[in-house]
Design a protein that fits this description.
The complex is a heterodimer. By secondary structure, chain A is mostly helical. Chain A is built from 7 helices and no strands. Chain B is an alpha/beta fold. Chain B starts with 12 loop residues before the first strand and ends with a helix.
């Protein structure tokens, strides 16, 4: 599942274009489910620099892209149910180690890979994340990197 | 684009596919005054259509019809075929690799044979192909620019003792040449080169062929079947045109270059009373001996920034491991090439979740990477076959790709992963990961050349053994995989095949 080396497709950048009205409603999901999914998204792809709002926007993007059939909402609901069924009490109240252990238990279930793929696309195709890591995206309009540091590495040992 | 041919014109040579094999063959034939109709299933992009947006280009370039089994990558449905997406490393198959069976012996469960031609015989055509494609380090063309990622590979390679390290052998212009500009280090090579610095048939072979007045390109033309007469010679091809109408183009000869899956499917789907198992399948080898190279893409978190997204995806390589040294525990060899990707593609290749994945992505700018490609011995079980009942949008049986790594490939992969790790750790990498990325972007075999008709589908010219005017003109004809990226050999074989077809026509043998 990669566009770069050997490719087959998945959700594209369109999932990033969401309306603020949609984001406030999270589709039909209740806030408790949404909170758990934000936590799950962060544990899937943990980035300290990114806020909970960022992860919420990533989820809202996927919800919005599938609003017509609610397919992503159904996946999140299934994930929430599964996470909460492994141990007594709410999954979100467990400590991080236990939360991860529960995620590994449900990793083989159908929803997991689908959510993982959608969240991965939502984060790593996201210009907000790109800014965090210093990736600049499209370069042809700037003439590529021929004059912008394609060969500027300066820390390699001099003898090599 | 002035020239057009009638559907009833049986003097034309039909070429199926416009990529490295089909695009090159079409132009070579047209330059010799041979009339060619090239049928391409995809559409024709211009440079202005090429944007630095991998998901968008994935949608524009990729063959997206349903396929089952082992996933393949980079297969394209567009004028130019995989030359739109290739990384442009242009390596010759080595002398010993042409003699796979003689060199490696009868490895268990393999179907190794020697090629029915030698490096010495193909060398003049390699030379022509390198000139045509503008391969750096040949024909006086300067080396490729050394990107940050290459500088890391070179330094690490030297530190672990490698000697054969080069930034040559890339078909991306290091200087303006052949009407195309020098590389600007844009960095989205596998999504199509937006300025045409990377060789692709879209803006080299195809327009040159169009200038000859001996060539017609029909886009959106999906070939369904090849017909033959009672003598066993092919006579026409049936295709669906861009308006969805079924057409039949008469032909003097037919050359199939649809990449391994579509080439197999077309020959298979052309079965008849005379050839009940498909054209070229008298030996039972059609679709078998499917090879896809030992590959992996690995990343390391280096101590300081590399910014490997700046510049060409592959800008150089280490060649020391290409030799056959059985003492390493496997037959054949491999190349260690630079490998870079955009953030999303890196995350998809890592294909994991949790702390490690997050760490790699947080440190994207510090990543260095390699792409490895090595010899993959042929096996009968590795094959392309077809679903009994399920059809795709063309009404053709859905292809199923059976592929498992041979133990030799597994052993080579493990060796290459450890060597890659050593290279990066010698420079202080704090984390290394070998991904499954890269699998299935080099596809070979399925209609292999063989001296003995019982051992393969095509002869030393890529001519189907028992059908004198049917040719295979893509990587399907590889008798063995060799270690290096296959495109240069596909192009060289196409140039050579064009000479053979022209000579055969001149002698009235075709």
């Amino acid at each position: 599942m990669t566009f770069s080396a050997c490719a087959s497709g998945t959700l594209g950048p369109s999932i990033l274009r969401i309306s603020s009205a949609w984001a406030e409603s999270h589709g039909d999901l209740d806030q408790e489910t949404m909170d758990a999914m934000i936590r799950m998204a962060r544990l899937l792809f943990p980035h300290e620099a990114m806020s909970d709002e960022f992860y919420a926007e990533v989820l809202d993007g996927a919800l919005s892209a599938t609003a017509s059939d609610s397919s992503f909402a159904a996946l999140l609901t299934a994930a929430d149910d599964a996470l909460n069924s492994v141990k007594s009490g709410r999954w979100i109240d467990l400590d991080e180690e236990q939360q991860l252990a529960v995620m590994r238990e449900v990793e083989g279930m159908g929803f997991f890979a689908a959510i993982q793929g959608a969240v991965r696309a939502g984060i790593y195709l996201n210009p907000v994340f790109w800014e965090h890591i210093g990736y600049l995206g499209s370069s042809k309009e700037f003439g590529g990197y021929i004059n912008r540091g394609f060969d500027d590495i300066d820390w390699l040992p001099e003898d090599l | 684009m002035a020239k057009t041919y009638d559907l009833s014109d049986d003097s034309v040579t039909v070429v199926v596919g416009s990529g490295a094999g089909g695009g090159t063959l079409s132009n070579e034939l047209a330059q010799k005054g041979i009339d060619v109709v090239c049928l391409e299933a995809g559409g024709r992009l211009s440079l202005a259509d090429i944007v630095n947006d991998p998901p968008a280009m994935h949608g524009k370039l990729t063959w997206l019809d349903k396929r089952l089994g082992a996933p393949v990558g980079l297969l394209c449905k567009t004028v130019g075929g995989t030359t739109m997406r290739w990384t442009a490393i242009a390596l010759r198959i080595q002398e010993h690799e042409f003699k796979a069976l003689s060199t490696y012996g009868k490895l268990d469960d393999t179907t190794l044979i020697d090629w029915p031609l030698t490096l010495e015989e193909l060398a003049p055509y390699y030379d022509k192909a390198e000139d045509k494609m503008g391969v750096t380090g040949t024909h006086g063309i300067p080396p490729s620019f050394e990107t940050n990622n290459y500088k890391v590979l070179k330094a690490g390679g030297k530190r672990v003792g490698y000697k054969e390290i080069t930034s040559e052998r890339t078909a991306i212009n290091s200087v303006a040449r052949d009407g195309r500009p020098a590389c600007q280090q844009i960095g989205f090579c596998v999504s199509g080169c937006a300025i045409g610095a990377k060789w692709s048939t879209l803006y080299t072979e195809i327009p040159k062929a169009e200038q000859t007045d001996h060539f017609e390109l029909r886009t959106g033309a999906m070939v369904l079947k090849i017909n033959h007469d009672d003598s066993g010679k092919v006579t026409s091809v049936v295709y669906v045109d861009s308006d969805g109408n079924r057409q039949e183009q008469k032909a003097r000869a037919v050359c199939v270059a649809g990449n391994v899956v579509e080439t197999t499917r077309l020959l298979h789907n052309s079965s008849s009373g005379m050839f009940p198992d498909g054209l070229g399948n008298t030996s039972g080898h059609l679709g078998r001996n499917y090879m896809r190279h030992m590959t992996h893409i690995s990343y390391a978190i280096m101590p300081k920034p590399v910014n490997f997204h700046r510049g060409t995806r592959i800008s150089g390589l280490i060649m020391d491991e290409r030799h056959n040294k059985p003492e390493r525990g496997f037959a054949g060899g491999y190349f260690i090439e630079t490998g870079a990707a955009d953030p999303y593609s890196v995350s998809a290749m890592i294909n994991g979740w949790g702390e490690e994945t997050g760490d790699f992505m947080d440190n994207y700018t510090n990543l260095a990477g390699v792409f490895i490609t090595g010899e993959d011995p042929s096996e009968a079980r590795n094959r392309i076959r077809f679903h009994d009942t399920e059809k795709d949008g063309y009404g053709l049986p859905v292809p199923i790709l059976d592929y498992k790594m041979h133990p030799n490939t597994v052993a080579m992969r493990e060796h290459s992963i450890e060597k890659s790790r050593d290279i990066f750790e010698s420079l202080g990498a704090r984390r290394f990961i070998a991904t499954g990325g890269g699998a299935g972007c080099h596809n070979m075999g399925v209609a292999r050349m063989s001296e003995n008709p019982d051992d393969g589908v095509t002869n030393r010219w890529g001519r189907v053994h028992d059908i004198p005017n049917l040719f295979v003109s893509d990587g399907s004809v590889f008798s063995s995989s060799g270690a290096g990226n296959p495109t240069l050999t596909i192009v060289s074989l196409a140039i050579r095949q064009a000479d053979h077809i022209a000579e055969s026509m001149a002698k009235k043998e075709l």
